[in-house]
Amino acid sequence: MKRKVLSLLFAGMMIVSLAGCGGKTEQADSSAAKADTAASSGETQQAENDDAEEKTLTVAASRDTGELNPHTYSSPMWVQSLVYEGMTRFVDGKVVGGIAESWDISDDGKTYTFYLDKDNVFSDGTPVTAEIVKKNFDAVIAVKERHDWMETYQVLDSVDVVDEYTVQLNLNAPFSGLLQELALSRPVRIGAEAMFPDSGDTLNDPIKEPIGSGPWKIVEHVDSQYSIFERNDNYHGTLPSYKYLKVMIIPDINTAANALKAGEIDMIYDLDSQMTGDIYNELEASGFTASISDPVTTNMILVNTASGATKDDDVRLALEYGINKESISKNIYGGLQPVADYLMNPKTPYCDDPDIVTYTYDPEKAAEILDEAGWVLADGASVRSKDGEDLVLRFLYEGDNESVKTMGQAIQAEYAKIGVQVDMIAQDSTNYGTAQKEGAFELLQAETWGDPFDPHSYMSSFRVTTHGDYAAQLGLENKKEIDDKITEALNSTDEKVVEDNYQYVLETLTEQAVYIPVTYTTKAIIYNPDKVDQVSYNTTLDVLYETFTVK
Amino acid sequence: MLKYAVKRILLIIPILFLVSVFAFGLVRLMPGNAEMAFLQAAGIPPSDEALEHAAEELGLNRPITEQYTEWLGKAVHLDFGESFTSHKVVREEVLGALRNTAILAGFSTLLILIISVPMGVLSAVRADKELDHMNRILAFLGSSMPSFWLGPLLVQLFCLKLGWFPVQGFGTLRHLILPGFTMAVLYIATYSRTLRNSLLENMNRRFVMYSRARGISEKKIVMNHVLRTSLIPAVTTFGVNFGHMMAGTAIVEILFSWPGIGRLCVGSITSRDYPMIQGYIVVISVIFVLVNLITDLITVALDPQMRESL
Hints:
Chain A is an alpha+beta fold.
């Protein structure tokens, strides 16, 4: 009996693990067969090199590519951009044509007429017509309250078909950022008829097939492991020069770096900003080509004008002078993030303002300002005080971001030198959002949203009561004027008005020291020079993989 | 024995009911809320309206008892709902990931058996000799090395320097070896020592003396009699540890990009994906309960004294 039980136990374990291995190998074999041409390493790659057309670029991504529904938020934005086109596209800081070749805007700014490319077809060969564009918009407009955080879906009323290749968007109010927001990878990217569920309800029902007119089509997806995209030969833009884009799902950046070294992937395009200066420099030293993009967002400290000691204008001003950005950029970000002088980097549309003030590191001046404002250091004290109130500030940040934590500690040390005590409060991303909404901070680490959200969508959020920016600006005397200027800019069709208003807002916020821009975030691209020839940068939401070339 | 087994199996029902209450309640007691996490994952700024829409979409705006009864009603039919973030069916996601973790844990178990049993037996037979000392040092090292440190070291040596195994991924035996070994090391260290001590203890018992007196060879005594008796504590600990192994794979899975349950769970916790976390807790609890049950039954079957006491 005993012997039987024991042998059964052992046999059972062996079977479980062998069956597991066997099953897996089989699956791997079959997927390997399918992905044969797409596999990145070893013999397969060499065979591929014989045929330039069949080449594969293998990249790492930290998140799964998801269900690829063009009207929801479950897939990463850059993945949606591979498969689906929007009405417009945001390339190099400018709005260019997407599925629409050109457009007209009515004088009152409330009617946008889009002209489609008559030869454009989806990857399944069906034509891109005004009807199908309308169907996509209608599916989103039907649930537009889900998307009304974007100005576009507050003003967009309806879509009409003018003729087979012309559509018209009807707005209830003009919105200057419309073309820029339409370039976003959601909620409206255009999918083919074959994509729609029978109910037509893309929000609640799963899509049938992810068919779009973008440069790529998905041919294989293994959940949490990898996805293979094949060039869409029907694409009406620049055709990719290689045939497959294989996306390996690797959640940890260290693992991705090792996979690059081992030749399992060709490139890391660090869209989720996981790259550290150490890994970057090590990979560069190991012979990989490493580069960083132009500024993407601004990594900044939001100073609360409505809470604690930072209600005092002079305290905020002193904080601007007390921060050593050079050192943070060099020592904490390993040079990956250059020093930021402006809240909106001057390349952002409408934000190149020569009159905006900048602050340079000057701790003595900071101390002077505090002294003059009555925040004095008592004998033997390390923290300044005024009228019995100590100069103690809460610094709220996302605890799972190591670099931000280190930056916070550097700022803590710098401010301690001028007699300001900083208490670090780490929150996980969810609580960080809640605390930010409640304004429970004096200093908050935050980022701008990056293009194409900047400046329209980001500055629009200054007016939204639940946002950290709103909470922080509440103590300003001209808060109402700021909000009105933004509203006016958003609803204007006059470029000059848009520019003037945004610049007014940025100038006043800078003069009143509400934001301390620290560094500009960038995206690192590191690749194997033996495999990849040329890469380019665009927004984080739309990576121009079709323009990359591989060897 | 049969009565004991039936009693133990019936006990599973109230245990799982309690688990369901805790699973449901605890995820909602976590700081932070699911609506906020949902919006963050989607890249939507959390305005009051957006939070309201999210609560409505996720079904979180209804009374908690109503949410619980609906969930429980479905859960007894093994329907744990849809993930908040990926919209995938939780049961499929959890079972798929669980299968991958079971492969990893099963392979680790195999390594543990293959390595720790001979190590334990040899150490016992050659107690306090050189081999035992060496095993002791290895066991000491193995039990003190955390997987988040050992894993990268193994990757450096076997993947990057020697190129024997892939750094990450899933699908073949080559993908399995390093993560499997990383997980197994701690257990090998523990079991080989437990087994050695238990063997030594039993070697001094009277049945061994009688066996020797009967002229049975030392090898037969160890392999046929002492080893079997000594396995009892190891099987009991293993029962508890297998559950831990299934539930504690997160670090190894993230390190080696293994698409298993640990990685799924950590991701779900970050995104406050309630249905996924609940499904995970229930499934892992079922595994714990079942493994404990099986272990107890085996122990009873192996141990005549316990069997008689029932």
